[in-house]
Design a protein that fits this description.
Strand content: 15-25%
Order of helices and strands: HEEEHEHEHEHHEHEH
Oligomer: single chain
Distance between the termini: 39 Å
Shape: globular
Number of strands: 8
Length: about 280
């Protein structure tokens, strides 16, 4: 197997890059959504789902930009997006990285960062969302993507929050635990995702750190280190005793923590700090 397939297992589960292997929002009872195709500056075509809030009377001028982990596709995360729009009353924009799902190209760190910037620019330029506040949500390697994006866009004024779920400090530091046979050649990896270096660049964006303490892929110490190097005044730590890498989202209170964070961010109230 090629190194890129270890880092970006975009074909897992089998069929993840086929039409039939990408679940659509309507398969989960969502009717108000759009299936977009975005063009990147370097010529790739990215798939994306834009899901509107089902409760129009409680809808907020808010879009959550969502980045998933390194396997599967956006269709596999639609239940998360559905929970977010139902609990919060917001739009959810789900981006498919290059080389994943129905997007063209081959994934790598530079390309995925271009994809992320393409997505936030798209949100800013659409009539429906151009005046929205934006909260960026990232799981696993999607959290690394989210950190870089927020660091590069914090001065625009529309990004008001960052939510991180089971995210790594850097790929090189993760390799020895996630891919033990490759630990002796971690220094040769040319995909860095150095979030502990990017994190201190973020100055004034509130952050929510959500850590599964039984994460079997990314040790919880990675999240604690990111929290430690985070310099923003408003940062919130929430951990989940039985949360594994992929199932932390199913832990009791997970979405309640996000709702509380969003209310605090939009309301401007001082947030509780708990580690």
């Amino acid at each position: 197997m090629r190194k890129s397939e270890l880092i970006y297992p975009r074909n897992l589960p089998i069929g993840s890059r086929t039409e039939e292997g990408v679940p659509r929002p309507n398969q989960y009872g969502i009717s108000d959504y759009e299936d977009f195709r975005l063009q990147t500056p370097d010529g790739e075509t990215l798939s994306a789902f834009f899901i509107r809030p089902s409760n129009k009377r409680q809808a907020k001028r808010l879009t959550i930009l969502m980045f998933h982990g390194n396997a599967g596709n956006i269709g596999h995360r639609v239940p998360i997006a559905k929970a977010l729009e139902e609990h919060i009353g917001c739009n959810v924009f789900m981006l498919e990285y290059r080389g994943y799902g129905l997007s063209t190209g081959t994934p790598d760190e530079d390309g995925i960062n271009i994809d992320a910037q393409t997505a936030i620019d798209f949100i800013r330029n659409q009539a429906e969302t151009k005046d929205d506040k934006i909260i960026v949500y990232g799981e696993s390697i999607g959290g690394a993507c989210a950190i870089r994006l927020v660091a590069n866009n914090q001065e625009a004024g529309d990004v008001v929050g960052l939510i991180l779920v089971n995210t790594m400090t850097s790929l090189r530091k993760l390799i020895p635990s996630a891919f033990p046979p490759a630990k002796y050649i971690a220094g040769l990896c040319h995909q860095y995702w150095n979030s502990e270096q990017e994190m201190p660049r973020i100055k004034n964006i509130p952050m929510l750190f959500m850590s599964g303490l039984k994460d079997e892929i990314i040790p919880p110490s990675h999240m604690k280190e990111l929290y430690s190097v985070c310099r923003v005044e408003k940062k919130v730590w929430r951990d989940f005793e039985n949360g594994t890498h992929n199932e932390t989202i199913a832990e009791p209170g997970f979405f309640d923590c996000i709702v509380e964070f969003v209310q605090d961010v939009l309301g401007g109230r001082k947030m509780e700090l708990r580690l």
